[in-house]
Amino acid sequence: MGLRKAKLADVEYIQKLINGFAEEGLMLARSRHMLCEHIREFLIYEEGGQIKGAGSLHILWDDLAEVRALAIGKDYQKKGLGKMIVDSLIEEAKELGVPKVFTLTYQPGFFAHLGFHSVNKEELPQKVWQECLYCVKFPNCDENALLIDINLND
After folding, report:
1. What is the pLDDT of residues 43-63, one digit of tens each?
2. What angle do CA 109, 3, 78 make, to 5 degrees?
3. CA 98, CA 90: separation in Å to the nearest integer?
4. What is the pLDDT of residue 136?
5. In 3D, which of 56, 49, 57, 107 has the Cα closest to residue 77?
6. What is the pTM of this model?
7. Where are the domains of the chain?
8. Which own/partner pairs from 128-137 qualify as long-range (CB within 8 Å, at least 24 positions apart)?
9. 2-149: what fold?
10. Please, is 54 exposed, middle or buried when counting C-beta atoms within 10 Å of its C-beta (0-12, 13-18, 19+)?
11. Sequential DSSP letters for the chain
């Protein structure tokens, strides 16, 4: 089926994918409530009736969005699926007129390969004060912050 917007019926499968990696310490866990509340932000990749990848674009401010909850099934990693999802999310940000997209990740090399560059978390006050306060890792966040500037004129 390919890449598509997520539906509420996908929440259980998205949660299983994400939280499987969270159990390995590779990303933060997501609650069913969070996924339902933000389902419209998610893109998924489906093949053979199974979700093989997911990621979301969360708007924080008129000039800042976040790629978050990116998870690719182990049997689909290193095949371009993560890049496809991130590229689609960045294109969505561009269409919305959001000039900067960031991520907080344990996989900085992947995002650097896509053109993101490292930044200090302090450069992301909208994220820190809106959402990080409620994270189980606050104030000792060990994720890497990376950002990409989007050329809105292309």
Report:
1. 999 999 999 999 999 999 899
2. 30
3. 9
4. 63
5. 107
6. 0.91
7. 2-149
8. 130/60, 131/60, 135/28, 136/28, 137/28
9. Aminopeptidase (3.40.630)
10. buried
11. -EEEE--GGGHHHHHHHHHHHHHTTSS----HHHHHHTGGGEEEEEETTEEEEEEEEEEEETTEEEEEEEEE-GGGTTTTHHHHHHHHHHHHHHHHT--EEEEEES-HHHHHHTT-EE--GGG-HHHHHHTGGGSTTTTS--PEEEEEE--TT-
Structure tokens at 126: 């909208």
Please give the pLDDT value at position 127.
55
Determine the Cα–Cα distance for residues 114 and 103; give it in Å rounded to an integer: 12
Q: Indicate the length of the chain as a whole number.
A: 154
Rounded-to-integer distance, Cα 149 and Cα 114, Å: 12
Q: Is the peptide bond before 99 cis (omega within 30 degrees of 0)?
A: no
- State how beta strands 64-72 and 144-149 pair: unpaired
pLDDT of residue 122: 79
Phi, psi of 68 (to 5 degrees): -140, 165
